[in-house]
Amino acid sequence: MLQDLTDLKQLDALRREFLANVSHELRTPIAAKGAAIDALQDGAMQEPALAADFVRRLRLETDRLAKMVEDLLLLARIDAGRIPPDLQAVDANLLAGTSAEGLRPLAERSGLELAFIPAPEAVPLLADRAQIHQVLGNLLHNAINFTPGAHRVAA
């Protein structure tokens, strides 16, 4: 009996790549938090402006880690088939605007302007509102995390 293992090998390779990416993504905020804590312990706490900047960075990295863990848990539930899509009619403008509003505080803490630019007309979608909201949130969160300060992120 012969069996084609191509799909299984590709899936295994994707899983290994995913785990490597997750490990790398988790190391970055953990290292940044460690560096900020070290700086605070080494005297930055004695300078209020510098201490405030390190505390702001700690908050950003903590938010980033929390978001990654939330995304990983959601991905595990989807992978296990425990979250079937709940398809319904949604307005893309409303969904994107809500996603942008939810991340506005993170953008402001990062020194960024988050601008929502709606489509001129309603854009109806048949989608799972929660899952699309999660995807949009992930995209905006990444844009905020990887855009240098004093710039604009548009949704």
Textual characterization of the structure:
- With 155 residues, this protein is mostly helical.
- It is built from four helices and four strands.
- It has helices at 6-41, 48-79, 92-109, 129-145, and strands spanning 87-91, 113-115, 124-128, 152-154.
- A two-stranded antiparallel ribbon has the order 1-3.
- Helix 1 runs antiparallel to helix 2 (48-79) and helix 3 packs parallel to helix 4.
Helix content: 55-70%
pLDDT under 50 segments (min length 5)?
none
Beta-strand content estimate? 5-15%
- Major beta sheet, strand line-up: 1-3
- Assign the structural class, choosing from mainly alpha, mainly beta, alpha/beta, alpha+beta, or little secondary structure: mainly alpha
Counting DSSP E segments of at least 2 residues, the number of strands comes to 4
Main beta sheet strand tally, sense and closure: 2 strands, antiparallel
The mean pLDDT is: 84
Any chance you could write out the topology, listing elements then pairs?
Elements: H1 6-41, H2 48-79, E1 87-91, H3 92-109, E2 113-115, E3 124-128, H4 129-145, E4 152-154
Parallel strand pairs: 2-4
Antiparallel strand pairs: 1-3
Helix pairs in contact: 1-2, 3-4
